[in-house]
Please model this.
Amino acid sequence: MVLISKTENAIGDDLPYKDEPIQILPNLYLGSEINAANRSMLNRLNIEFILNVGKEVENPYLEEITNVNSSYFADSFHQISPGLQTNSSVSSEDIPATSDFKPLKYKKFFWTHNQENLIADFIPAFAFIDEARSAGRNILVHCQCGVSRSASLIISYVMKVNRMTLNQAYEYVKDKSPYISPNMSLVYQLVEFEKTLK
Model:
């Protein structure tokens, strides 16, 4: 496993995922905040679930939210007016359909670049991914760039569902998306997660 700890794209000067997210597993896409904000592209790829793991990345559909599903995360989610910040660790929203677009299920984990104790969030994150995939729905997992935080979640998910080691899962995801480059803090947590799978 070759790890490069930089947030910039190691593949030239182009932005990662500038055209569209990359499919990692059936129904599972990895991308950036730019992809998540492109409703036409989401519709074209039949993406109906979005999992955002970037603390600083806003939900681009706040104005469209009419229904907040907080029952699953009642202890950590507080209903807020659009545009206001919350210190909650998880938020969950349903984004309604419009005449042009399908509805979206949106979940956010407020992860920083050096987030600690990611393993605790893996279970609810995996459950949301599994909810989409088991229903045959496509899901986009993203952070700001799709390079470190969301890539770490995708790697951990591939480790779990494909019963792979960290090295195998990293190489598998890297083969699909050359942009990934989890920072060392997150890699250490993936090493710890690997121990729980044995």
About this structure: Residues 2-12, 66-88 have pLDDT under 50 and may be disordered. The chain is about 30% helix and 15% strand. The helical segments are 33-36, 39-44, 119-134, 149-161, 166-176, 184-196. The CA atoms of residues 10 and 179 lie 7 Å apart.
